[in-house]
Amino acid sequence: MSVLQDNCPSKPFSVIKSIIERELEKPINEVFSSIDENPLGSASIGQVHRATLLNGDNVVVKVQYPSVEGVFRGDVRTIKMFCQIAQPVHVPALEEIEKQFMTEFDYQLEAQQMDEVRINLLKGGLANGDDSSPVIVPKPYLDLCTKRVLVMEEIKGEKLAVGLKRDMERHAARMGKTTEQLMLEEEKLNKEARKKKILRKGPTAEEFDKYIAIFDAQRKAKNFMSKLNNIFVAWWMPNSSWRTYEDKKSLPTNYASLVDRLFEVHGHEILVDGYFNGDPHPGNILLVKNDKQNMQLGLIDYGQVKRLSDKDRHLLCRLVIALADDNKESIVNLTKQTGFKTKSMNEDLIYKYSKVYFDEDYPKITDGKHIQLFLEDIQKQDPIIEMSKGEIVMVSRASIMLRGLAHNLQQSRNVAKLWKPIAEGVLRRET
């Protein structure tokens, strides 16, 4: 379903132009000096165009399609009907997600949420707003945002999936293989790992840095040879070819650092700020590479921001610590306090539910099963009557999404162990 993130069929620009002018109540040329008629991407509820404001600022303009809210409600109703018959384990979560997702259709609210997250991360030192910043959150132009139009700062980056695909293509070329050959080999290794009920582990952040340093040395040597060629050969011999130079953007991405950074940022949003993006799928993550720092992460799309009360935030901090310490009694008691209920209140299964929703889905917990099949199996043993509170459900959703990305990059993590120092710091300062 990744096609729904930015590859849906787009609307003609004439339709987009009329929506913008109607929402901003003025001709488009009184707002933008230029706007690209070809969309950067087209998602399921709207599309995005690159533009320049009259003051010269480069921005992107997000425009919502008409009537999409009604279509969404119908789609969710259909999914719920299907799950009630075929996969009842997902119904309680779907009901909570349906309530939470209605904020997706108010771009003015999304702009305000984006700005608050950006300011929180600036205060926390995780987003400095310059080339040295580990994370970039775009600045919204609040005076140009309405229910169906959102104008925000442009981040010069590429979607995470695009950057990772390019890394894979370069890696295959270095090994003298095609991308297809490399993918087949990887899938074979993945199948063997699943059969053995183990997780494949990629390099650590330090190993990645050494690997990248080797390629950086090769890049510099190649550039030096190109320079010699261009000065002493190509300049004097017209029939000789000029060689191009490689910049640092061609270097591989440190996947381990990328995963750690994503968990750190979202752990801070949830446990420190109590204000977090509940929809951190790969389509909402940009890779930004520059000459000062090999990698920055651009975090976009804030339609699913949720606010935790201090009480719930402190409860989550205690649950994170219990999960990290694998304190079964505390895990069960704290999970019950989130509002989670099952038919029989089987404590062994509540423990497993909590581990999978908030912490980990390693083979030792899921018996090597896919997370969905595992949840369906324990649902048969002790059905969920009520999920945790809506905002806490979205914390579990964010945790599962981030872990899914980490698994695919062979960088699986225990969320609770990563977040435990953050949780301890919060409780020490605030309680």
Question: How would you portray this structure in words?
Answer:
By secondary structure, the chain is of the alpha+beta class. The chain has a domain at 3-66 and 106-154: Phosphorylase Kinase, domain 1. Helix content is 54%, strand content 11%. The chain contains 16 helices and 13 strands. It has helices spanning 3-6, 13-24, 68-86, 91-101, 107-123, 160-174, 179-196, 205-234, 255-273, 310-325, 328-337, 347-359, 363-366, 371-381, 390-408, 415-430; strands at residues 32-35, 41-42, 46-53, 58-64, 135-136, 149-153, 158-159, 275-277, 285-288, 296-299, 305-307, 341-342, 384-386. The strands form four sheets. Strands 1, 2, 3, 4 and 6 form a five-stranded antiparallel beta sheet that branches. Strand 9 (285-288) and strand 10 form a beta hairpin. It starts with a helix and ends with a helix.
Q: SSE order in H/E notation?
A: HHEEEEHHHEEEHHHHEEEEHHEHHHEHH
CATH architecture call of the domain at 3-66 and 106-154: 2-Layer Sandwich
Shape: globular
Number of helices: 16
Give the CATH class of the domain at 3-66 and 106-154.
Alpha Beta
Strand percentage: 5-15%
Q: Given the helix and strand composition, which structural class is it?
A: alpha+beta
- What is the radius of gyration? 24 Å
Helix fraction?
40-55%
Spans where pLDDT lies below 50 across 5 or more residues? none
What's the number of extended β-strand segments? 13
CATH topology annotation of the domain at 3-66 and 106-154: Phosphorylase Kinase, domain 1
From the N-terminal CA to the C-terminal CA, the straight-line distance is: 43 Å
Mean pLDDT: 89
